[in-house]
Design goal:
binds flavin mononucleotide; Non-ribosomal Peptide Synthetase Peptidyl Carrier Protein, Chain A; TIM Barrel; DUS-like_FMN-bd; 308 residues; alpha/beta; tRNA-binding; FMN; globular
């Protein structure tokens, strides 16, 4: 019987290249109740690659961050999970990534092509750790979620995360929120959650325990503030804090990483295109901070036209 407490109803979904320590920290500070690491290869854990130190949770976020592993070999998944499980909330298996490089090796959503093998991987993971979850899609090329759900429950998975699309769909169409959910284990829904209203509707339609937000949080961590839009001052403060965290983690390379977030942080703002173009060339974190201070200052005084 599980005795662990679920971390809440709304979390930051795993995103390779996005949900690093600085961004997780921002989202957790603003109200995300839990977060995921980026997906980490089970094989790379077994090889004890140095790079994994960057991916794994830091000690202070241990109780809020789920470690996501990917791989296709039951033994590798189980052994890697044993090594990392104490470093985070628990270990999650990626059974949803549709990227060719991952699927080709039978990992990610590639696991959904062979349900018997999928079951073996889950069984090995389950047997290796105290608690675990699986993040999956509705199926490989059709909605087979009922079958997937049964396998996960039979094998004793503690929590299920599901992106309401098939692997073949990639990101096309709308994510389904009305999905099979008999309520045997906590289920969290993922896909197309961009606003606080989406959070509420997705939970209502699915009967899920909660949601995890991915693209809707990039440059918009305020989605975790329950629908409250940030003021210009708040927006600038978070941008600067994010940049500080990036600098602490990566030095000035943080300025390059921040480029992935610029579109989000400036979405729907006046002169967004101009500021984006300008900051994409900036190479230091200090310079970036100055550019954003300047931009938000003029945004506030409504004198932006003179600034560009
Ligand atoms: C850039 C990017 C990277 C992602 N990386 C992962 C990953 O490492 N592991 C995973 O399970 N899902 C990954 N996903 C899928 C998301 O967690 C999520 O399920 C999907 O994007 C649908 O949610 P959304 O509409 O809120 O973006 C990624 C998505 C994006 C956009």
């Amino acid at each position: 019987m599980n005795d662990f407490k679920l971390p809440g109803r709304i979390g930051l979904a795993p995103m390779a290249g996005i949900t690093d320590y600085p961004f997780r920290k921002i989202c957790l500070e603003l109200g995300a109740e839990f977060a995921f690491t980026e997906m980490i290869s089970a094989k790379s854990i077994l090889m004890n690659l140095k790079i994994n130190r960057r991916y794994l949770p830091k000690p202070e976020e241990k109780n809020k961050v789920i470690i996501q592993l990917f791989g296709s070999d039951p033994f590798e998944i189980a052994e890697a999970a044993k090594i990392v499980e104490e470093l985070g909330l628990w270990v999650d298996l990626n059974a949803g990534c549709p990227v060719t490089k991952v699927v080709k090796r039978g990992a990610g959503s590639g696991l959904l092509r062979d349900m018997e093998h999928f079951r073996k991987v889950i069984r090995a993971l389950r047997g290796a750790v105290k608690r675990c979850s699986v993040k999956t899609r509705l199926g490989w090329d059709k909605d087979e979620f009922e079958r997937i759900y049964s396998i996960l429950v039979e094998e004793g998975v503690d929590v299920i995360f599901v992106h309401g699309r098939t692997a073949k769909q990639m990101y096309a169409g709308r994510a389904k929120w009305k999905i099979y959910n008999p309520g045997v284990v906590p289920l969290y829904i993922s896909g197309d959650v961009y606003t606080w209203d989406d959070v509420k509707i997705a939970i209502e339609q699915s009967g899920a325990t909660g949601v995890i937000v991915a693209r809707g949080a990039i440059g918009n961590p305020w989605i975790f503030v329950r629908g409250k839009s940030p003021t210009t001052e708040e927006r600038l403060a978070v941008v600067k804090r994010h940049l500080d965290y990036l600098y602490e983690e990566y030095g000035n390379y943080g300025a390059v990483i921040f480029r992935k977030f610029v579109a989000g942080y400036t979405r729907n703002l006046p002169y967004a295109r101009e500021i984006r173009e300008k900051v994409m060339k900036v190479k230091t974190v200090d310079e970036l901070k100055r550019e954003f201070e300047f931009y938000f200052y003029f945004l506030n005084t409504e004198n932006l036209r003179t600034a560009f």
